[in-house]
Amino acid sequence: MSNPAVAASVRFRTGKVIEDLSWTTVSIDVLRSATPWRTFRWHRGQKHYSGSYWAATTRDHVIYESRLELARLLFADSDPLVQGIVAQPFLMTTVIAGGVCKHIPDYLLITGEGPVVVDVMPFRRLSRPEVAFTFEWTRRAVECRGWRYEVWSEPAEEELENLRFLAGYRRPQFGSVHAVLR
Q1: Rounded Cα distance, 53 and 50, in Å
Q2: Closest Cα to residue 70, out of 59, 80, 85?
Q3: How many structural domains comprise the chain?
Q4: d(C-alpha 48, C-alpha 124), whole Å
């Protein structure tokens, strides 16, 4: 599979949507100010657990659509390299083999080492052909910009539990909890 031509669409707090931006030229400043592409889906008996997390890094709420996404947020919020977290930052669209492919990554992490696009998926679902296909073209598109792409699955339970405990102390006056975990 070669690198496909990819377009990005971005939504802003004002409700404005900019569609079909060239993926290779859309600026990090535009993406930093994006709001989540999707809205919450709440219904009785839903199988996922959506919510918002107060991130000390952004000093704002960041949404998540599952407990696994919440876990990734905890790790991002405690990482001293992460300077910004954007949930569902953009819609990526491309055409592969005559078919339109669309994908909304879960997070964009703005770090001191460059942007990181993150997809969160339970390990048991990574081998599904449609998931592997989507993550592969997404990885190629992200890496062609010199950015990092990460597929994140279940962390070590002990580390997650420690991080959950320490997240309550993640405030500027207390410093970084990341150093405590090392």
Answers
A1: 10
A2: 85
A3: 1
A4: 16
Q: Determine the pLDDT at residue 18.
A: 93
pLDDT at 178: 45
CB half-sphere exposure, 123, CA atoms < 13 A: 4
| 181 in any annotated domain | no
What pTM, to 2 d.p., does this model score?
0.86
Q: For each successive 10 residues of the chain (182 residues), what is the average pLDDT?
A: 80 92 93 87 70 88 92 92 96 94 97 96 95 96 96 87 73 49 42
Does residue 182 lie within any of the structural domains? no
Number of neighbouring beta carbons within 10 Å of residue 152: 19
In a domain, 150, yes or no: yes
Give CA torsion, residues 161, 53, 142, 111, to 10 deg.
Answer: -80
72 found inside a domain: yes
What CATH number should be reported for the domain holding residue 96?
3.40.1350.10
Q: Which residues contact 100 (CB under 8 A, 6 or more apart)?
A: 93, 94
Nearest-angstrom CA–CA distance, 89 and 27: 12
Whole-angstrom CA distances from 70 to 40, 49, 80 are 14, 9, 18
pLDDT of residue 179: 44
